[in-house]
What does this fold into?
Amino acid sequence: ALRERFADAPKSAAEGDPDAAPEAPLAAQPTAQRAELIASPTRAHRKIAWRQVAILTYAAAQRDPGRACPPPTAPGWEVAPLLRQGASATLLKEGAALPTALERFCEYRWTNAPAPATTLPFGPGPLPGGVLRMDPDLDVVEPQAPAPTQLIPSPLPPAPLTPTSLGDRTIFLGEDGDLRAALADAYREHAAAKAGPAPVPEPADAPLVAVVDTASYGDSLADYAATAPRRRHGLAMAGLIRDVRCPHGDAACEARIFFAQAFPYSADDPAPREDGGPLGSLGALARAVGEATLRWRATPAPRGPLIVNLSLGWDTKHGALSIEPQEHLSMLKGDVEAVPATVQAVHAAITWATCNRALVIAAAGNNDAGPCGELGPMAPAAWEQLRAPRPAECDAAFDGDVIVYDDEGGARSDGSLLYAAGGLTHVNAPIPNARVDSLPTRALPAFQAVASSIPGRSDSWTGTSVAAATLSGLAARTWPIKHPNAADLATPQELMAAIDATGATMPDLRQSVRRYDRQPGPVRRIDGFTLVAKRCDALGLLGAACPNPYAPPSVANLHEQLGQRLAVEQRYDSSRERPAAEKSLTCADATVQCGGEGPVSIVRCGDLPPQTSPALDEPWTRPQPDTPICPVCPIKKRTRLYISPNPTNTGAVTLEAPALGFALRDGSFLLAGLEDIRVSPGTTVIVNLDRVLVPYGVGAAATPLSDILEDEDVTQGELGFTVTDAAGRATQELSAVAIYDD
It folds into this structure.
């Protein structure tokens, strides 16, 4: 069922204490088990995490640069500088060290996996002198498009990977070439990033984009379809960045991108895998951001500035920056015990990137817990409220080991440490899986996006990951635009101020993520054509002096046009429809406090768990959505729901307690429970919503769900369900659903 974690729902011990045992037995944990959930012969609960991150006092790190991490005293542990290992160590000159503010982080790794760790690196006693604090490095980071993950294969015979066909048309909608082409075209149209009349070459020193995600540095030329699903999210985000940045497909433009692996772990080994995990931790994220900065610094001239794309995030309950925003820079050289070492490591890595002229862009975060289930932006997007350090502060914090802009006169503008991106549907409403109270100043296309600059195109992705990638691509295209008399490019902060100023104000949306200056402002929709046109105009560059690579938007109603192009009803005969008797659902109405939105009514209809029952608890965020389980599952003519799971992702699967959820005009939510649905590999099941009756309107008459969708003019929703693998582990999934009247 749709997961609902209400504001007053009881919290597990694991939410408040990272060292607490989970309340559910191991068998009930999510499919991709954590390194710290170790299956012993007795099916023991949580043991000591296989990775621990320590932060040293600044004085201790400064005394012996590069060799300050104290060796573990307990057997079975090894230690290495957190940010100076793997590719990062290779990129540094032999014997070189990072700035002290980065060298003070140490990673302790258990060497006897898969056996449980029996003690902490320094035993049960106090930490040694010079160690400020030590925290478990849990797998809490997740890509932000979309929420589902790949299921553990069952021991059943493998499902065929090629979907069955009706004539020459595939039944698995997500792989249909015509549908992918339509969604890819709609994404670029929505971003106003389709090719203009003539190519506009980028300068040789145009920005480099680092995609810190599920792909590794060597994946730049990887074939999407032939790549393991666990690595496709990063490839898709890179494809979307190229699509909006390089509308004419210029090879030099498309080559200005590289990867840094932030998801290197598997569930049975604490050591990073070169080809990716699928699990990610805060320590791995800090290391990947540091690697991206080092790789940019090692790039020979001509070298443009760096954009770091973070289409990922973690819920702040798994690691909060519990310090006053105006004091955040004090962590770099001070000894702050209130913030976990893992969180301080990510903060230090991002701040170092910013001090090296990088523009850091982060996804605002997705909600995978149903209406009002998860509130506020995820980290690091929530850190937009932090002020970026000024050049002098960068020099002081990182021992002068930075590449900053000249700001001797103090004329450069202040700005945020990083910038968040919120997601919109084709009708410019927040995406259905947006978190309440998470919209930043800027919002961009993020609904069922397909990347074209990948052979065969990518899967369809919905989430703020897509919004972040869109913003990164547009920022990369816009950054080189400057007045001929300007000595230098705009700073990242100046660029983002200019980008935000070009957006169209959206009066129906409310900004929740404040900037560094805490000033409220409108939510603005950013698009490529308007961005370039207004940027050129602001600099006094007209006509041929500042050509626009993009064509103006040409579709008045993108949602309606897309519904006509996605003629899925013509791909199936009536035999595909699931026979069902008319079913009347009884409903219960509950009012919950939904963040800044205030009290919200949630109407739950059908056989759904009672609202007082907490959802299946996951003590740590479930990371790594491989291919979306249901990338294209539309409702056509508001009557028929086409359920088409990815056979590569699931094989035969039963969708247990499926529930269709959507918002009504008055701001309330309706959740309609459907019967369990069994889907064979590579097939599509059609659910007739005319047969599902819900009390509605004056007198609460039994009304077909399809009529409610039409009366409320609903264009989007969510399909939530539970799937259980062969080992009995239940996983809750949430897929975005587009609703068309054609």
